[in-house]
Design brief:
The chain contains 1 helix and 15 strands. The protein has 263 residues and is mostly beta strands. The protein has a 15-stranded antiparallel sheet that branches. The N and C termini lie far apart (47 Å).
């Protein structure tokens, strides 16, 4: 009887173990894809569609083409770096009627990973170039500032935030000075089989005009591997819960596909 019981226990554990390993692997895959400090090359296609803007019947859209490239520590800089470039393809109301669509302002930042164990911490400079195809798609100004990220990763998911600040220092003299800050909280809760819940709304503060809006998102996504490449598709509706100023988003649909290479 004891031998039968022990055999049953062994069989039961042998069935549970692969499931537990698969669950851990799925969580690790989702974390790597969702972690903005993951040291792996990546390509992101992300879209913000805003059909509801305060005090207007207009809509906007921003398709973000984003690439990330890790750089290993060297003799001159002894910590790993993560370069990120974001180029928007934006749609905005045209002051002469209709809409204009084209390239927006290019943003670049270089994050130095000061802490890679436990709570990850990165900070570094950023610059925005006035590459917009039309005036309404960009600021017409060169901007510079800082970006900082803190991320805590566990099998349950991710929690952290990205903070950015920038101010204009050159550009079209006929365009107004720009000074802004953003705070993007990251809340990722992992589910079985690579699924996860997410909330990543970006809180935006226009410091020059003393306006702001704070969106809260609630969405879902799924990460999966094809060979050594991770694919991650998600949808996250975002509702503005507090704002000051006119012409600010009240509802935005955020969706995207993240591709992480080689990890």
């Amino acid at each position: 009887m004891d031998d039968f019981r022990r055999s049953g226990q062994v069989l039961f554990l042998s069935l549970l173990l692969p499931a537990g390993l698969a669950s851990a692997d799925n969580a690790d895959t989702a974390n790597k894809s969702n972690n903005p400090l993951n040291l792996a090359p990546g390509l992101n296609l992300q879209d913000y569609y805003t059909p509801d803007i305060a005090n207007t019947n207009a809509h906007t859209n921003d398709l973000l083409l984003r690439g990330t490239l890790p750089i290993a520590p060297g003799d001159f800089i002894g910590v790993p770096q993560l370069l990120r470039a974001t180029l928007p393809i934006s749609t905005r109301p045209d002051p002469h009627g209709g809409y204009s669509t084209g390239v927006g302002d290019l943003n670049l930042f270089d994050i130095f990973l000061l802490k890679t164990e436990g709570i990850q911490l990165g900070i570094g400079p950023q610059i925005t170039a006035p590459t917009a195809a039309h005036d309404q798609l960009g600021t017409g100004k060169w901007q510079a500032g800082l970006a900082a990220i803190a991320i805590d990763s566990s099998p349950r998911g991710l929690i952290g935030a990205l903070v950015q600040y920038q101010s204009s220092f050159a550009g079209d003299e006929d365009r107004v000075h720009v000074e802004s800050a953003t705070l993007q909280p990251f809340l990722i809760h992992n589910l079985p089989k690579g699924w996860y819940l997410r909330s990543t709304g970006t809180w935006t503060f226009d410091l020059k005009n003393d306006t702001h809006y704070i969106p809260i998102g609630l969405g879902a996504g799924k990460a999966w591997k094809v060979g050594s490449t991770i694919f991650n598709a998600f949808v996250e509706p975002q509702w503005t819960v507090e704002h000051k100023g006119d012409g600010l988003p009240r509802f935005t649909l955020f969706a995207g596909l993240n591709i992480t290479f080689g990890k």
